[in-house]
User: Fold this.
Amino acid sequence: MKTFRFETKVLNDATLKFAADEMKVNQEYVSLKVVEEKHGLLGLNKNYVVEAVVNFDPINDSIRFLQMILTDMEIKAIVEAHQGEENNFTFTIDAEENPILIGRNGKTLDAIQTLLKNYINIFTDEHYMVLVDIGGYKEQRKKQLEILATKTAKEVAKSRISVCLNKMNAYERRVIHTKLSDWRDVTTESEGEEPNRYVVIRPKAK
Assistant:
């Protein structure tokens, strides 16, 4: 989590506000700890070395953030979270209005995921892999992409001609790269500039 160390002559609400403002978070997420007391000559002019720490729960606070978004959209939904390896988190949303939350080609879903990532980044300097899925859309999309990757890779391996796939977001490109990472006959590479990056599947040199 984010930390910030500074010196101050006093310890009061203003000190907490200063730390929160410097870290650009709400005061409710910040706690202060005195790590050192400095004294001037004859013990006068005491200064405190204070460490401010952001207290953030990546699961519970993220669920609360997603529920706040859904409340603003006047949508009732069930939000759940699962932590995978290390800092990998998957958040699932299920509501009667799933199609609205997913949007055309998953664009609304991607926007919600981006909002959550940006929210988490406010509170931590750690790198989190965050996935938001709504009504199983991402899981179904993953299966479709894996089928596409396998089919295209077979064609490339046979023809020895590279194939450029349609533009994809970072999550979709990662699915392709992961699916073909252990293939002996082909290799993958992302090209282009966001938001028009795409995956190229190439034959490996023999």
Remarks:
- The chain has a mean pLDDT of 93.
